[in-house]
Amino acid sequence: MTEKKKKTIKVTLTKSGIGYNERQKKTLLGLGLRKVGRSKVLVDSAPVRGMINKVSHLVSVE
User: Fold this and answer.
1) What is the pTM of this model?
2) pLDDT of 2 higher than 70
3) Residue 22 is part of which domain span?
């Protein structure tokens, strides 16, 4: 049984969501980012890319 290796991206929260609207805060939570400086490795998919684009001013992507 061989599995395809899925591409991943590493997203790091670089700026707090305080002062931004509720929708952007919920997007950060949806990405699994809760504290500044923390990172998550996520599967590179269209929905994840869209969420990253919505909060691109708050995160960095590797």
Assistant:
1) 0.88
2) no
3) 8-55
